[in-house]
Design brief:
Strand content: 25-35%
Structural class: alpha/beta
Radius of gyration: 18 Å
CATH class of the largest domain: Alpha Beta
Shape: globular
Number of domains: 2
Bound molecules: adenosine-5'-triphosphate
Order of helices and strands: EEEHEEHEHHHEHEHEEHH
Largest sheet: 6 strands, mixed
Length: 254
């Protein structure tokens, strides 16, 4: 495993308020990483910085073998470089079928080398992606009639179809049933065998099932990093996020 993304000494202020404060963070390829932390810790801002939606005041964000500085690239260039982002709310084309949604995503691969290689047909590839996200039986259905969880899976599928190297996923479990949450963890664990996957999540059971390295953000800094058990035992993490057992247990502030 080598570092795919290397964030070094990044700070970002909004009207004098430091949302990200000298943050350093790296992710390997492949790797599954969870980011947890209290509201306002800077988790979304972190994703905004990596995807070019927000520019850092200081620091560098390097990516890939050529260590390209993402702070110099546009959002579109960053997406084309293989960084996919899933926002909290699903954004699928509700009037199109699952197959059509996946086909549209497949038609615009992010990685330049995918267009140079001979590819199986759209039907085959859409079928493969649908299987990865548990939607094989729903290919002909309109996306609008899917459950919330299925829409989230479809969007994950649309991102996977574009063959990202780094996938950023913001609170995928929100609003899902427990069965859907379980299926989603399996999906992300599977995806992280090939890609770098960074997941922001408040649901601690979900994070536990991801069984991966966890970074705790607090006031724009990485407060702790390691296994979930390791960070959960850190008194600083208990103070700012988990709360003492007699008050909140592991529920955090979801
Ligand atoms: N565009 C902006 N303008 C002003 N302040 C901002 C902006 N974006 C973020 N902030 C502030 O930066 C801080 C970090 O916000 P951010 O949304 O990154 O936190 P978060 O960890 O994602 O929180 P949550 O868990 O609630 O989503 C917050 O205090 C927020 O109000």
């Amino acid at each position: 495993m080598s570092a795919l993304l290397e964030v070094s000494g990044v700070s970002k202020s909004f009207d004098g308020f430091k949302a990200i404060d000298n943050l350093s963070f790296s992710v390997a390829e492949p790797e599954l990483r969870a980011i947890i932390g209290p509201n306002g810790a800077g988790k979304t801002t972190f994703m905004d910085l990596v995807t070019g939606k927000t520019r850092p005041d200081t620091g560098s964000i390097r990516y890939g073998e050529l260590s390209r500085d993402l702070t110099k690239l546009s959002e579109a260039q960053i997406a084309r470089a293989g960084i996919g982002r899933k926002f909290q709310k699903p954004t699928v084309f509700e009037d199109q079928t699952v197959f059509e949604n996946l086909s549209m995503a497949l038609a615009s691969p992010r990685s330049p080398w995918t267009v140079l290689t001979r590819r199986p047909s759209m039907e085959v590839r859409a079928g493969e992606v649908a299987e990865r996200v548990g939607l094989t039986a729903h290919l002909a259905r309109r996306a609008g009639v899917l459950s919330h969880g299925q829409k989230q899976w479809l969007e994950i599928g649309m991102l996977l179809a574009q063959e990202p190297r780094l996938l950023l996923v913001d609170e995928p479990a929100a609003g899902m049933t427990s069965a859907e949450r379980e299926r989603t963890t399996e999906m992300l664990v599977e995806a992280a065998k090939e890609h770098a996957v960074v997941v922001i999540e408040h649901d601690m059971e979900f994070v536990r099932r991801l069984n991966c390295r966890v970074t705790v953000l607090h006031e724009g800094r990485a407060l702790a990093e390691g296994s979930l058990d390791h960070v959960c035992a850190d008194p600083r993490v208990i103070d700012v996020y988990l709360g003492r057992p007699e008050t909140e247990g592991e529920t955090a502030d979801a």
